[in-house]
Amino acid sequence: NNVFQGRSLLAEKDFTKEELQYLIDFSQHLKELKQKGIPHEYLKGKNIALLFEKTSTRTRAAFTTASIDLGAHPEYLGANDIQLGKKESTEDTAKVLGRMFDGIEFRGFSQKVVEELAEFSGVPVWNGLTDEWHPTQMIADFLTIQENFGKVEGITVAYCGDGRNNMAHSLLVTGAILGTNMRIVAPKELQPEAEIIEMAQTFAEKSGAELLITDDVNKGVAGANVLYSDVWVSMGEEDKFEERIKLLMPYQINMEMVHKTQNEDHLIFLHCLPAFHDTNTKYGEEIYKKFGIKEMEVTDEVFRSKYGRQFDQAENRMHSIKAIMAATLGNLFIPRV
Ligand code: CP
Ligand code: NVA
């Protein structure tokens, strides 16, 4: 029987090491089918709702193309298109969507909303990012790590930057479950809350992952296999640029930091994207005018270097979202993991 059938993916903590590893391996398999042009329409005739309160390029595009490749019909329901959050409660919206759709993706602010959608819709709900977690991103990220190093266990990831955002939470907890050594390299003010660290520590005791939360860049990146960055200002906190730039400049991923790993032969750079690495956008120009900086979390030099795997990682969003949807909705035969 299928241990995934009918389940939602709301946060990584609800899945075992074996289950997460299965989703990574299944993503790899689906990527091979796609590359060979072999059809994989596990969700033929299904309807998928894509709810977005926040903007998105990768998550939306990945859910859309993944649905179509799996034979399903995706329907985008943006924040300004539907009643949710204005005229209708989450509970009522969930009950209606669950009568029409076979699965629901939600991206937004509150984790509570994605949990309520799962509670009241009666169909699998996939968290496409909330303020707290970004679980679908994790399957793509650890697939990318596995592609580069042949495994995720025992690999060392140093995430540098805002240690309190969704990405930091998800990487810390997912790495701890999977046995990947996780380091959060961040100033004290932006290190994860105790509750998240304790959750990760409990998982790490079981998996053997080594965890390190530090404001010391030298210690934090020494021996790392992956340098990982995310934006310094997440969606919904756009008033925080000034304080974040001040706090996080020492944590920028640049060539000096690459050298500090002393591990350049076994090193990759990852970023969930979008990235602020040059002023080549309207947004970038505004930041430059206001704060006089051309790069934030990663320099353009590192971004375009031989270490960069961020576009493989972006592509892997599609393969991994396919795996997540097919496993939870496809009535597939999946041996108990
Ligand atoms: N990484 C990621 O979630 O990208 P989008 O915000 O473009 O979906
Ligand atoms: N921390 C970022 C991730 C974007 C994929 C944000 O929430 O904006």
Folded structure, characterized:
By secondary structure, this protein is of the alpha/beta class. It has 2 domains: 136 residues, Rossmann fold, CATH 3.40.50.1370; 179 residues, Aspartate/ornithine carbamoyltransferase (Rossmann fold, 3-Layer(aba) Sandwich), CATH 3.40.50. It contains 13 helices and 9 strands. The strands form 2 sheets. It has a 5-stranded parallel β-sheet. A 4-stranded parallel β-sheet has the order 2-1-3-4, sandwiched between helices. Strand 3, helix 4 and strand 4 form a beta-alpha-beta unit. Helix 5 packs across helix 13 and helix 6 runs parallel beside helix 7. The longest helix has 20 residues. The N and C termini lie close together (10 Å). The model has no long low-confidence stretch (mean pLDDT 97).
How would you describe this structure in keywords?
337 residues, 44% helix, Rossmann fold, 2 domains, binds phosphoric acid mono(formamide)ester, 4-stranded parallel β-sheet, binds norvaline, 5-stranded parallel β-sheet
Element layout with pairings:
Layout: H1 17-36, E1 47-52, H2 58-69, E2 73-78, H3 90-100, E3 103-107, H4 111-121, E4 125-127, H5 135-149, E5 156-160, H6 166-178, E6 181-185, H7 194-207, E7 211-214, H8 217-221, E8 226-229, H9 241-248, H10 255-260, E9 268-271, H11 282-291, H12 300-303, H13 310-329
This protein binds phosphoric acid mono(formamide)ester (CP) and norvaline (NVA).
